[in-house]
């Protein structure tokens, strides 16, 4: 046996004892009778979540899931913002509505003037 492999300590002459032991503080690394030496117990829900996360499939599926999540978050954001009056989009829509209303009012005034003019000429 060689010193390099660590099979015995170099300072001990005549004794070839192992450098380390598995028995630390009187406990040994033996398996339990039911075979669960290094086992963790998780619920079925947790197992299914882990499987679903690992079972993403190809990168395309990952991208599709990512895009779907982004669209969902964008929809939530748009629903939150749609009633805010101080956004650029809301101001643009307000200007457009005001312009359409102004044009409709001008058209109604012209029709009223035309109706009066026609009644004067009919007399």
Q: Which radius of gyration do the C-alpha atoms yield? A: 41 Å
End-to-end distance: 132 Å
Q: How many β-strands, per DSSP?
A: 0
**Secondary structure: helix percent:** 55-70%
Q: Helix-strand pattern, N to C? A: HHH
Shape: rod-shaped
Oligomer: single chain
Class of secondary structure makeup: mainly alpha
Please summarize the sheet with the most strands: none
- Extract low-pLDDT stretches: 7-12, 20-27
Mean pLDDT: 79
Counting H and I runs of at least 4 residues, what is the number of helices?
A: 3
Keywords: Coiled coil
Summary tags:
CFAP210, 123 residues, 3 helices, mainly alpha
Walk me through this protein's architecture.
- It is a single chain.
- The protein has helices at 44-54, 59-81, 88-122.
- With 123 residues, it is mainly alpha-helical.
- Residues 86-123 form a coiled coil.
- Residues 1-30 have a biased composition (Polar residues).
């Amino acid at each position: 046996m060689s010193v390099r492999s660590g099979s015995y300590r170099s300072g001990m002459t005549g004794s070839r004892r192992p450098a380390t032991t598995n028995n630390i503080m009187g406990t040994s690394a033996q398996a339990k009778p039911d075979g669960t030496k290094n086992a963790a117990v998780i619920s079925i829900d947790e197992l299914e979540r882990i499987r679903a996360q690992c079972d993403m499939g190809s990168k395309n599926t990952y991208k599709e899931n990512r895009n779907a999540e982004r669209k969902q978050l964008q929809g939530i954001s748009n629903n939150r913002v749609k009633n805010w009056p101080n956004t650029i989009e809301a101001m643009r829509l307000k200007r457009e509505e005001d312009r359409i209303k102004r044009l409709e009012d001008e058209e109604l005034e012209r029709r009223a003037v035309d109706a009066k003019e026609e009644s004067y000429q009919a007399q």
